[in-house]
Design a protein that fits this description.
The chain is α+β, with helices and mostly antiparallel strands and 412 residues long. The protein has helices spanning 3-14, 23-30, 50-62, 115-124, 141-146, 154-157, 193-196, 230-244, 256-265, 294-307, 320-338, 355-369, and strands at 19-20, 43-45, 67-70, 87-90, 97-101, 106-110, 127-128, 164-170, 176-179, 205-212, 214-215, 219-227, 248-255, 279-287, 313-316, 343-344, 347-349, 374-380, 385-391. It is globular, with a radius of gyration of 23 Å. The structure holds flavin-adenine dinucleotide (FAD).
Length: 412
C-alpha cells in the first residue's frame, strides 16, 4: 500500500483531524523529552474512540504495518518511538472520563486521560487516586498502565498493576477485548488484564481502564531528615513502620549530589536544613482519619532516630506549603539532572534491606569502570526502587558517544 493510499484509509477512519503528516505537526510526537531518541515515522494517527482505534489497528494489521502506541511520551526509554514505515498511534484524543463511581470506589477513564486529571476527578468525588509521579502533568493513564508505573505511593497502594479493576484493549488484529469490569472479587478464570499491564503495547492498545479509588488522606505529616548513610535510612524506615504502621506512605532517599542538582537548576527549590549532609530521607505519614496523631508519631520516630544515631538533623513541615516544598525538592532532581550533561538512567528494584549493599557495590563498580562518573541514586526507598542514575564527569564536553553517550543536548 502506498503512503497516499494508507493516508486516505486512515483519514476515512478518523477524519482529517485525526491524521498528522507535516514535519511541524509530527515534531512533538517524534521528539523524546531528553533528546536521546528520535522517531522517524511519517504518520501520526490520533483516534478519538475505541471503535476508531480498532479500525486503525485492523487496517494496519491487514497491510502488515507496525503500530507504536504513544501516551504522554514521558517514558524516557524509547518505548514510544516509531520508526519510518510504522504508524505512531497517539491516545491524546481518547480523553473521556467515562464514569466516576464514588460509592463503588472506582473510576473509568479512556487511555489518553492525563494522570493529573484522573487525580483531580477523584478528588472532586472526595476520593484519592494514589498513583503519583514526576511526569503526572503529561503522562497518560494508558502509558502508566503499559509501563506498570510505580511512583511515590507504591509502599502503601502498590504499582499501577495493583490499582486496576478492568481494562478495554484493542488486540493486534483489531478486535476489542472488553474487560471493563469493576468487580473487587473476580475469580472467573485467568486474570487476562494483567497481561496487558507492563506490556508496553506489545499485546494490544489499551483504550480504557477501570481504576480503584481510595479514601482521601485527611491528616498528613512530613519531614526532611538528614541521615549519615543509606543503612541508617533503612533502619529509620523500619522504626517508622513499627511506630506508625500503614500510615507510612512515602520514604524517598536522596544523596546530597541530587539535592545540589535540584537546588542549582530548578526554581523554587529550598534546602530546609542549615548544614550539608551526605544523605536525606523524605518521610511522610498520612491517614484518612482527620484527627490521626501523625505529627506526634513523626516526632517520636525522629527522636528515637536521633538517639539511635540514625538521624543527624530534620525539618518537620509546619504547613502544607512546606510539605509541598519538600516534595518539590525531591521531584526537581530529575529536571536538575538534565542540566548536568549526559546521563544513564536505571530504574532498579531490590529488597529494601539490600538497598545499602546494592548502592555500595554498584557505585564501586561504575566508579571503577568510568573514572569521574557522578553517581546519583535516589528514589523510592520504601519499596526498594532506586533510580540508579549516572551523570557524566564534571567539566568535560557533553558526552555524545561512549558509555555515557547518545544523550544529545536538547534540540541537537
Ligand atoms: C519526571 C518523570 C518522573 C517519572 N517518575 C517515574 C516513577 O516514579 N515511577 C515510574 O514507574 N515511572 C516514572 N517515570 C516514567 C513513567 O513510566 C512514565 O512517565 C509514564 O508511566 C509513561 O506514561 P506515558 O503516557 O508518557 O507513556 P509513553 O512514554 O507515551 O509510552 C510508554 C510505553 O507505553 C506504551 N503505551 C503508551 N500508551 C499505550 C496504550 N494506550 N496502550 C498500549 N501501550 C501504550 C508505549 O508504546 C511505550 O512503550 C517518570 C518519567 C518522568 C519524565
Amino acid at each position: 500500500m502506498t503512503d497516499a493510499a494508507l493516508l486516505d484509509a486512515l483519514i476515512a477512519v478518523t477524519g482529517p483531524q485525526g491524521v498528522l503528516r507535516s514535519e511541524a505537526d509530527l515534531e512533538p510526537y517524534l521528539k523524546e523529552w531528553r533528546g536521546k531518541y528520535r522517531g522517524t515515522a511519517g504518520i501520526v494517527v490520533r483516534p478519538a474512540s475505541t471503535a476508531e482505534v480498532a479500525a486503525v489497528v485492523k487496517l494496519c494489521a491487514e497491510r502488515g504495518i507496525g503500530i507504536v502506541p504513544q501516551g504522554g511520551n514521558t517514558g524516557l526509554c524509547g518505548g514510544a518511538v516509531a520508526e519510518a514505515g510504522q504508524v505512531l498511534l497517539s491516545t491524546d484524543r481518547l480523553t473521556r472520563i467515562r464514569e466516576v463511581d464514588a460509592e463503588g470506589d472506582h473510576i473509568t477513564v479512556e487511555a489518553g486521560v492525563i494522570l493529573a486529571q484522573v487525580q483531580t476527578a477523584a478528588e472532586a468525588a472526595d476520593r484519592l487516586f494514589p498513583l503519583s509521579l514526576g511526569a503526572e502533568g503529561s503522562c497518560r493513564i494508558g502509558g502508566n498502565l503499559s509501563t506498570n508505573a510505580g511512583g511515590t505511593a507504591v509502599l502503601r497502594y502498590g504499582n499501577t498493576r495493583d490499582l486496576v479493576l478492568g481494562l478495554e484493549v484493542v488486540l493486534p488484529d483489531g478486535r476489542v477485548w472488553d474487560g471493563l469490569r469493576a468487580l473487587r472479587k473476580d475469580n472467573t478464570g485467568y486474570d487476562l488484564k494483567q497481561l496487558f499491564i507492563g506490556a508496553e503495547g506489545t499485546l494490544g492498545v489499551i483504550t480504557a481502564a477501570v481504576l480503584k479509588l481510595f479514601p482521601r488522606p485527611r491528616s498528613v505529616a512530613a519531614a526532611l531528615v538528614a541521615v549519615p548513610d543509606p543503612a541508617a535510612a533503612v533502619a529509620l524506615f523500619g522504626r517508622a513502620r513499627a511506630e506508625a504502621g500503614g500510615s507510612v506512605t512515602g520514604v524517598e532517599l536522596m544523596p546530597r549530589l541530587a539535592v545540589d542538582f535540584a537546588l542549582r537548576h530548578v526554581a523554587g527549590t529550598v534546602d530546609p536544613l542549615s548544614e550539608r549532609h551526605p544523605w536525606y530521607v523524605l518521610l511522610e505519614l498520612s491517614s484518612p482519619a482527620a484527627d490521626a496523631p501523625l505529627a506526634e508519631q513523626l516526632e517520636m520516630i525522629l527522636a528515637g532516630g536521633f538517639e539511635a544515631g540514625l538521624v543527624a538533623d530534620a525539618a518537620i513541615a509546619s504547613s502544607e506549603a512546606q510539605r509541598k516544598a519538600f516534595w518539590h525538592l525531591r521531584e526537581a532532581i530529575v529536571e536538575g539532572q538534565r542540566f548536568e550533561g549526559g546521563a544513564i538512567k536505571h530504574d532498579i528494584a531490590v529488597p529494601v534491606a539490600k538497598v545499602p549493599e546494592f548502592l555500595e557495590r554498584a557505585t564501586a563498580a561504575v566508579e571503577a569502570a568510568i573514572p569521574g562518573v557522578r553517581v546519583v541514586p535516589f528514589g523510592h526507598l520504601g519499596d526498594g526502587n532506586i533510580h540508579f542514575n549516572l551523570n557524566q564527569p564534571e567539566r568535560r564536553p557533553r558526552c555524545l558517544h561512549g558509555p555515557l553517550g547518545g544523550d544529545r543536548p536538547p534540540g541537537a
